[in-house]
Amino acid sequence: MNIMDEAILEKAMSADVAPATNENIKMRGEKVCVFYGDKQALFGVDLLIRQNQVTALIGPSGCGKSTFLRCLNRMNDTIDSARVEGKITLDGEDIYDRNIDVVELRSRVGMVFQKPNPFPKSIYENVAYGPRIHGLARNKADMDAIVETSLKRAGLFNEVKDRLNDPGTGLSGGQQQRLCIARAIAVSPEVILMDEPCSALDPIATARVEELIDELRENYTIVIVTHSMQQAARVSQRTAMFHLGNLAEEGPTEKMFTNPDDKRTQDYITGRFG
Ligand SMILES: Nc1ncnc2c1ncn2[C@@H]1O[C@H](COP(=O)(O)OP(=O)(O)OP(=O)(O)O)[C@@H](O)[C@H]1O
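That is the input. Now the predicted structure with adenosine-5'-triphosphate docked in place:
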């Protein structure tokens, strides 16, 4: 390794290993357990989500990544058999407190799903819907600007600018996913949860979304579930490795991919299981 490489690595490492302070912790999971009926899916997960960083959740299929992600904006509430124990905070506030307005929580902690799920409405309305119900636009010109900026940021505007009134469901799968990303961005959430957001996208669209994720972290905190080690390494600053419902290890992404402490992480990133 030459001096330049060492300097770059040292800079990256020192930025990422900065101790977590209350100021840079956006969300905190403490002893999070999730049950689906009698089956326990998460076993006491402790995880910090740092502000303006991308945290990647990795691990073999069924290890609980999506379950943990869904705890962060109470999407597990929508699953009848699901029960969550432990504590999860957003800016220090318990999001499972009975006084929490779940609709408001989900506008602060938005979500992009694995399968594109546009509303059966026009492309324009898909993006405008959230800002409208949250009163984010004063007039039509404001709304047009929000819709255009959101579609541009999601790398979709050029493909749809001449057919904004066509149904969102008429787009290709990859375009639909970018529409869902535009929809998430449009309400200016503080945290964006992404559950394998690129699995339906081609490599060019994937690259664009990864660039977008990097841009978005200036203003938002992002948590992404991914099966792609390359994607986790490219987009995240922190990586959390899950295994059989436990958090095996969490740390700076460079360290996790070059010198992990836990053998399960080592085995997973080298393709020995998963
Ligand atoms: N709605 C549900 N009802 C019952 N069990 C569920 C439900 N969702 C997930 N599980 C179970 O919880 C465990 C964790 O699943 P989860 O989807 O969180 O894992 P994952 O790591 O995201 O998997 P994948 O990478 O395959 O998406 C699995 O054993 C799964 O079968």
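Residues 6-269 form a domain with the Rossmann fold fold (CATH 3.40.50.300).
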